[in-house]
Specification:
Strand order of the largest sheet: 7-6-11-8
Structural class: alpha+beta
Distance between the termini: 53 Å
Largest sheet: 4 strands, mixed
Order of helices and strands: EEEHEEEEHEEEEHEEHHH
Shape: elongated
Number of helices: 6
Helix content: 10-25%
Number of domains: 2
């Protein structure tokens, strides 16, 4: 077929299983497929899920932990981005844990943890102030009554009209009833008391990436101590 290549790969398309193997048809705009990241861009971009050798269907958007050359956890990307780095020689696999992607004549490990081949120097990370991070810091618990729920609001301890700042030290999670009860008063004026003093979270690797541990237990050893 003019302008198209056919490949026999262990993939599924459109979230529907079509057996262990299916034929994929990709339009190519280059006469020759380039090296490195071009492989992933041309072969995997149109694919939503791949069939791993261990028999599981894995989304290419599954998280992959990226380590600095000194094993410092840097970032979380998806499988497609990680494989771009691997094929381009910019990283190496530290932990597989997911199986393989097989083509008709090659086999590629599906990474769970990769390490960069070069040192990335960066400033000390910090946690961006946001509603999501306030709720996460407070463990989705109202800081006045102790109720745990995902239906929480953000309260300024010292109201803005009274000179309160929009900062880690002046923001807490509060349930709607407690927020209404407090209104525009200070906790003392409303006879309400905080369960603990608010603080800025320490940007440890566990805090930054620990929410992935429930599904990616193999990351734990790479997060400890950072």
């Amino acid at each position: 077929m003019n302008g198209f290549h056919h490949f026999r790969l262990p993939f599924i398309l459109d979230n529907r299983t079509r057996g262990s193997y299916t034929h994929l048809v990709f339009p190519l705009t280059k006469t020759e497929l380039g090296e490195g990241s071009d492989f992933i861009d041309y072969y995997l971009s149109p694919v939503l899920y791949c069939y791993a050798a261990m028999g599981n269907f894995i989304s290419l958007n599954e998280p992959v932990l990226i380590l600095n050359i000194n094993y410092e956890p840097l970032h979380v990307c998806n499988i497609k981005r990680a494989m771009n780095l691997l094929v381009a020689g910019k990283a190496e696999i530290v932990c597989n844990g997911r199986g393989y992607i097989r083509t008709s004549n090659e086999q590629f490990e599906i990474p769970s943890v990769i390490k960069l081949a070069y040192m990335v120097k960066r400033p000390r990370p910090h946690i961006a102030l946001s509603k999501r991070e306030i709720l996460r810091r407070d463990e989705y618990m109202c800081q006045y009554c102790g109720r745990k729920t995902h239906l929480l609001t953000i309260d300024h301890i010292i109201p803005r009209h009274a000179g309160g700042s929009h900062s880690w030290a002046n923001l807490v999670a509060a349930c709607a009833p407690c927020n209404r009860r407090k209104g525009g008063k200070t906790p003392e004026q409303a006879n309400m008391y905080l369960r603990r003093k608010p603080f800025e979270p320490h940007p440890s690797a566990y805090y930054l990436f620990g929410n992935h541990l429930e599904k990616r237990q193999e990351w734990r050893e790479y997060l400890e101590g950072w």
